[in-house]
Amino acid sequence: MARDGWPYFDPEYETLSIRINPPRVSVDNTSCKDCTVVKVDSVNKPGILLEMVQILSDLDLVITKAYVSSDGGWFMDEFHVTDQQGNKIVDSTTREHMEKALGPKGHKQDLLKTWQGKQVGVHSMGDLTAIELTGRDRPGLLSEISAVLANLNFNVVAAEVWTHNRRIACVLYVNDESPCRVANDPSRLSAMQDQLTKILHGCEEGENVAHTNFSANFTHVDRRLHQMLFADRDYENRLLSTETEYDPSCAPKIIIDRCVEKGYSVVTVNCRDRPKLMFDIVCTLTDMQYVVFHAVISSGGPNASQEYYIRHMDGCTLDSTEEKERVIKCLEAAISRRVSEGLRLELCAEDRVGLLSEVTRVLRENGLSVSRAGVKTVGTQALNVFYVTDAWGNPVDIKTIEGLRKEIGQTMMLNVRKAPASAKAPEANRWSKTSFSFGGLLEKLRI
């Protein structure tokens, strides 16, 4: 019975249409010679395209082509996917799990989280405290942040760090000094927040210069980093990357037109192809409150072409010049945030409190600046990946790397590689599955 005159709503009503018409998923290896074709038919709902693309990305699949249509309340998608080496998905376990994850019970059962060995970018996990930081980037900043955490005896179990247009966004997952102990001492958490905020502010003034927050939401970590940099307005005062500076053809080309007959705005993106490109674009359009009704995605060689037919959630198209320019700026930022220039350092060592502080201190003392980082812990092993340049954004001198090897080679494994110029260059060794992911934490934390 409803009380106080309020009408009663069945909590299951929201999912009624999906339960009546559950998603149909097909994984086909016969119709295409070079890739696996994944088809999903479902009742349309807000954000469903982003959900599908996010699942495929979390399964380490590369989307080479896609066809999207969601008019008339029905959602029909076709994705052409390969593994990271460009091969079809022939493993029956992977295919079966893909069908379940994209199907009607995928999100409810959290299948991606429980599939051992796969990389999943969940934002909140287990008993870890999530810390979100944004501010102005500078050489040595990550070292200062990790030093604060080490001094307060917090252990960094996982972290993602992005820098773009001289801004930094990072999400750090910490626990207390002893393993599996929740960091919940209010006085220490307050001290941590105060010290981190002072570091992020540096010599700048103003309330909006830097932010330090504790997070309890479950947003996908990559999406959360996009949201944090977007809120920080990193798309303004655009800077040329090193690659674009020397080769203007590498810069993304984004055009916004109108499809008058159907009442859509058409966003066309041509740029260098790379992993998770479609996710980054769809994520940004979704968070800017635009709905994708149709899309055609294609990648050939090193380049990708993507076309999206969109409207704002209120049904309007992009009519004003200012609105179009803002969307173009935001998409350019979304495309370039994940592009990692410089040298890639991969380190493996026994996990301990202060390890991240020690490593970043050594990088700073050798004149290296971190442009992007991924940290995770599997069992007792810490696996860290850093993309580094010198303090002015130039390539790192090989003598610096040799000195780095001598300094840290006694306590940890170090692998050095140049950042891949294209998504078509597969990562050929065992490290390729350990960077920028949180899947290895799942077994340890049992979530």
Automatic annotation (TrEMBL):
The domain of life for this entry's organism is: Eukaryota
A molecular function annotated in GO for this UniProt entry is: amino acid binding
Fetch the PROSITE patterns from UniProt: ACT (PS51671)
Where in the numbering of this chain does the ACT domain appear? 37-116, 130-211, 344-421
Sorted keywords for this record are: Repeat
InterPro entries attached here?
A: ACR1-12, ACT-like_dom_sf, ACT_dom
Pfam families reported for this sequence: ACT
Function text? Binds amino acids.
Under PANTHER family, the record lists: ACT DOMAIN-CONTAINING PROTEIN ACR3, ACT DOMAIN-CONTAINING PROTEIN ACR4-RELATED
Q: Any idea what this protein is called?
A: ACT domain-containing protein ACR
Q: Which organism is it from?
A: Oldenlandia corymbosa var. corymbosa
